[in-house]
Specification:
Riboflavin_Biosynth_HTPR; Bacterial bifunctional deaminase-reductase C-terminal domain-containing protein; alpha/beta; Dihydrofolate Reductase, subunit A; globular; 18% helix; eight-stranded mixed β-sheet; two-stranded antiparallel ribbon
Length: 190
C-alpha cells in the first residue's frame, strides 16, 4: 500500500508559512539542500527544477496533494506547478485557471480521496501543504518529513492548522543536522 508523507519546511515555532503565505524566511541555500534533494528529489516545481538542473525522475513520489492556498502561491505563472507528478488540489470554492489542465481540482473528502489513492499502484503520495489540509488528513499521514528551519516566524500557517488538541505519537525514523541550522526530522506513525 502507498504511504502518505507530509514533507514540508517548518519554522522552530511550528509554522509552514507566514500569515499571508510567505515562505521566504526558509533557507533556500546551504549544505542541507543537496542531501535533502537526494532523499526527496522531484519535490520542486517542474520549471524551477529544470532551470537549475535538478533531476526529476528519481522522486519517491508520483502524486502531490495540496490545498488551494498552497497551490495558489505560484499563480499566475505556474498553473501546473508539478507537471512531473499527478497533482491534486483540494478546494471548495475555486476552479482551475487556464493552463491547469494537468491538475485535478476537487471538493471531495480528503480522507476518502487519500484512502483511494493509497489503494492504487505507484510510488508515495506527497502532502506538501497546507496546514488545514494536513489537519484534515492527520489520521492518514504515515510519515512526517520536516525540514525544520532555524527561524521563528511568530505567526502564520500552523503545521496542523485548526486541528485542536488531539495528541498523536510518532516514532523517530531519522534526523539529520546540517551546518546551515536546518534539521531534516523524519517520523513514522507510531
Amino acid at each position: 500500500m502507498r504511504e502518505l508523507t507530509y514533507y514540508v519546511a517548518v519554522s522552530l515555532d511550528g509554522y509552514i508559512a507566514g500569515p499571508d503565505g510567505q515562505f521566504d524566511a526558509f533557507l533556500a541555500e546551504g549544505d542541507h539542500m543537496a542531501p535533502i534533494w537526494a532523499r526527496y528529489g522531484g519535490t520542486a516545481p517542474t520549471r524551477l527544477a529544470e532551470a537549475v538542473g535538478l533531476p526529476l525522475d528519481d522522486s519517491p513520489f508520483d502524486t502531490v496533494l495540496m490545498g488551494w492556498n498552497t497551490y495558489a502561491v505560484g499563480l499566475p505563472d505556474l498553473p501546473s506547478p508539478y507537471e512531473h507528478l499527478r497533482q491534486v488540489v483540494f478546494t471548495r470554492s475555486h476552479e482551475g485557471p487556464a493552463g491547469s489542465e494537468a491538475v485535478t481540482f476537487t471538493d471531495a473528502d480528503p480522507v476518502e480521496t487519500v484512502r483511494a489513492l493509497k489503494q492504487e499502484d505507484g510510488k508515495g503520495i506527497w502532502l506538501c501543504g497546507g496546514g488545514s489540509l494536513a489537519a484534515a488528513l492527520a489520521g492518514e499521514i504515515d510519515r512526517l518529513a520536516l525540514k525544520i528551519n532555524p527561524v521563528v516566524l511568530g505567526a502564520g500557517v500552523p503545521l496542523f492548522g485548526g486541528r485542536g488538541y488531539a495528541p498523536r505519537q510518532w516514532k523517530r525514523a531519522d534526523v539529520q543536522a546540517f551546518g546551515s541550522g536546518v534539521l531534516l526530522a523524519e517520523y513514522a506513525r507510531a
